[in-house]
Write a structure and sequence with these properties.
302 residues, mainly alpha, three-stranded antiparallel beta sheet, 13 helices, 3 strands
């Protein structure tokens, strides 16, 4: 699409997301993708963004539905479009927001899969430590599970943010916000076992402080982490839809099952709102039943 008529507007919006909203580059890319869909649609109906009506935007939502875009993705795109028009209103480019009455499709809460401790151990045990990247991958999985990191937080983890003697790491999360997260003794041990392997890698400039490196001496991509998690899930015979986020979800679920305070979990995950953390409060039925049997007064022997 030729976005030249909108170049200044698009550039100003990107700057707004990066600097004023303090969003991560991944989040900015998602918002810009939503804007792309809007501008493509408006160009086909020969309408400038500032002239768009509610009807124009409803037509876009209908076209997304007809293309088979699932309701959750539709809702995310609509959220991105609303963000853009709030920006236009803020910049006094429009006097009335056409998205004010634009409705998102109703979606239920979808909980991602989580792994049992046995499944996590099976995945880690499936790693071939005789391979050059074996110990690194073991340290990666242990760190993902031990600290409940987002994949971008893992790939950006720095030496200067490791406080292993104290049992903490400093994590840079969304919006460049930093938090201290406890790290398990097992993860510390696996990281220390990985360091001799890392020292043999010719590290490229600007990556000297990055903990987990690829063979070329640069940071690992998100896709690499995704693929290795998928690989070890398959080797372990796990049929669930496993991703790096599954480890984050498992981390929170197991903490909750172990009796951790929801506010503490919120802090460790780096959630701004407790409502976001509450999606992790599901418990598997067997655990819930055992808790009731153990603690309900009617189930106790007299």
């Amino acid at each position: 699409m030729d976005k030249s008529p909108y170049n200044d507007l698009v550039s100003a919006y990107r700057t707004h997301l990066l600097l004023e909203k303090s969003l991560s580059r991944n989040s900015v890319d998602a918002y810009m993708g939503d804007l792309d869909k809007l501008l493509n649609h408006l160009q086909t109906i020969h309408r400038h963004p500032q002239e768009a009506t509610l009807g124009d935007l409803q037509a876009l939502v209908i076209s997304l539905h007809e293309m088979g875009v699932n309701p959750r993705s539709q809702a995310r795109i609509i959220s991105g479009i609303k963000s853009f028009y709030r920006f236009l209103e803020l910049e006094k480019q429009i006097t009335k927001d056409p998205t004010e009455l634009l409705e998102s499709p109703k979606i239920g809460m979808k909980l991602p899969e989580f792994l049992t401790l046995f499944e996590i151990n099976t995945m880690i045990d499936s790693i071939d430590l005789s391979l050059p990247e074996g110990q690194r991958n073991k340290a990666i999985l242990e760190t993902l599970y031990s600290c409940g990191l987002r994949v971008s937080e893992l790939t950006g983890l720095r030496f200067s943010n490791l406080y292993l003697d104290e049992g903490f790491i400093k994590v840079e999360g969304k919006g460049s916000k930093q938090r201290l997260v406890p790290i398990s003794r097992t993860a510390i041990k696996e990281i220390n076992l990985y360091l001799p392997d890392r020292s043999r890698i010719p590290v490229k400039k600007k990556f000297e402080d990055i903990l987990f490196l690829n063979g070329r001496g640069t940071s690992l991509s998100r896709a690499t982490i995704f693929n290795l998690v998928k690989k070890y899930a398959e080797l372990a015979g796990i049929r669930k839809n496993v991703s790096p986020h599954t480890f984050r979800h498992s981390f929170a679920t197991h903490l909750l099952e172990g009796g951790a305070n929801l506010r503490a979990i919120q802090t460790m995950l780096g959630h701004e709102k407790i409502a976001t953390t509450e999606i992790y409060t599901h418990l598997d039925r067997d655990f819930l039943r055992s808790e009731i049997l153990q603690h309900h007064p009617r189930n106790r022997r007299r």
